[in-house]
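[09:14] KT: can someone run the structure on this one? pasting the chain below
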Amino acid sequence: MKSIIVGTAGHIDHGKTALVRALTGIDADRLPEEKQRGITIDIGFADLDLGDVRVGFVDVPGHERFVKNMLAGAHGIDVVALVIAADESVMPQTREHFEICRLLDVRSGLIVLTKKDLVDEEMLGLVQEEVREMVGGSFLEGAPIVSVSSRTSEGLDELKSTLREVAGQIPKRSDNLITRLPIDRAFTMSGFGAVVTGTLISGEIDEGSEMELLPQARRVRVRGLQVHGTRVKRAYAGQRTAVNLGGVETSELERGMVLAPVNRLLTTQIADVHVQMLSDAQRALRSRQRVRVHLGAAEILARVRVLSSPSPQAERGLGGEVAGGVNPILNPSPLAGRDIHKINPGKSGFAQLRFEAPVVCVLGDRFVIRSYSPQRTIGGGMILDAFATRHRARELTALRERLTHLVDGTPAQKLAAFVANAEERGLSRGDLMTRTAWRDEVVQSVIDAARGAGSVAEIGGQLLSPGVLEQLKRTVVKDVAAHHQAEPLSRGLALEVLRGRHFAHVSAELFRAVLAEVEQAGALVVEKDVVRKPEHTRAVSGADAALRDRLEAVYREAALAAPSMTEAFTRAGINAGTQKHGRKVLQVLIDAGSLVRVDGEMFFHRDALEDLKAKLRSHAAKEKSIDVPTFKELAGISRKYAIPLLEYFDRERVTRREGDRRVILL
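[09:31] RB: done, structure tokens below
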């Protein structure tokens, strides 16, 4: 059976709750204060079985003081029933609720004129004309208008038939997204414990599954599920769902939280967005302005930074409509971007929202903006990049182009925009998931499409723009070449130095992968802890060659009585002021294999070590092991050199220590 969510909207005392009660037999006013005062204060719920369609009603309060609660229930609805009393016609909250539905991109609906029994046909016709005028050019233009009386039941059968027809035109919700349930109510049920309810906006929830409660990142278990009061094993997208949770107390739950699969979504506090201002907003939206953002079932305070106005000249309509047939996102005015510090009433633009508390949002989520004080609805829009960074002024032109693709681009273009925004940091598949809530198979197909189009490269587990990847490669090669020029006696540039300069904020896997590609192309050679150009040699000449030869002679003559580095420099005629250069020449000997580091700054000439190995081999012909005193006698050295040499031979697998003796492995 198909399920749809219908949200009521309209002015206070226009009969929304009475209409739901007349249709379903359920009183959506559940609070004692609501029954006492005779007005709806918080959102209420009811359901109606129309045979082949199950309708879940979300009944919202109409009083201006409770618009906050109205917004918590308006998210996730498929159809809006704009309820207008025939004896009062269009009123302030009629218009505000209608504008909110447009801002939330509700695309289907019908108009219900209640209290038909209180007016004559002439008055009813006038109200219909006024309503048609108000919704002209919107998603409700041409929508059915049904006149009813909840008191006499006149028109209810026609309304049910209309609801069934509208439901048949509602497309199936996309199955490209992972599970998300924004929580709009939490309570304790005797014998069950904590229960939350909400509209399952995407995915499925299975009984017994483990889920994550965000923004707290708290793991919980689904102990039971109900849809329209009936226990089920699985709930599907588009259904009003009650979830009995284990592992959490009701006192820890509140409206605005989100249920999602474990480790699939993250919280954020900075998002790039597209904003549409209402034409009747009293003021422009300005940078640094404090606003109330209604996102899902949550209300969060935020500061605004206006990134630009795509078109100061043209107005982008609400709910995807475009004034005058011009799309200012795809065809911005030449003047766009001049007025970058505000978005005027009736205009659209890009902005950054800096939330004062962690939120959960992804690409395409709709939101409503209300002024901080007094609280009035002034605009709304769509989340573009939920994990944005603070942007520098010089980046804004390129940023606006990328954000445009996030508004109107294909999935592959949106991926390319995310990757471009990430710059050299790159984007992992997990990063893409948290920004989009796409399922794994969708992520893979979009990556394949973007790679095929040449807009994205995948390397080291990260997604990069091809241009950024090539720039990284050029930068690495250029830096190594500059190091060779500055330090001709150096073996190469240390890998850690290179990473610190250009890859400090990326993963080690990406750093290694970039180097591997550069090396495979023949531009660099990686040798242990350094990287060099293939043609780089450290052939020394002149004074450096003479110094090298003197140092090598010092160590060769010392044999196994190796001098300290300072002693070696003194014997080679290197004074204190030139020891730094002497170390570079010494490194040339080490890299050439002429000298071997045995311990710290203790070096031996290669020939001396080979002679000692020959003596060990001769000793092994008579006895396969040797102790320290015998080794000292064999080598003719003191314990100062014997112990470091034996430990070096252990590392080189020439010997193996067993107790107080060494087994000779030669």
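[09:33] KT: thanks! Residues 466-486 form the longest helix (21 residues).
[09:34] RB: yep, looked fine to me
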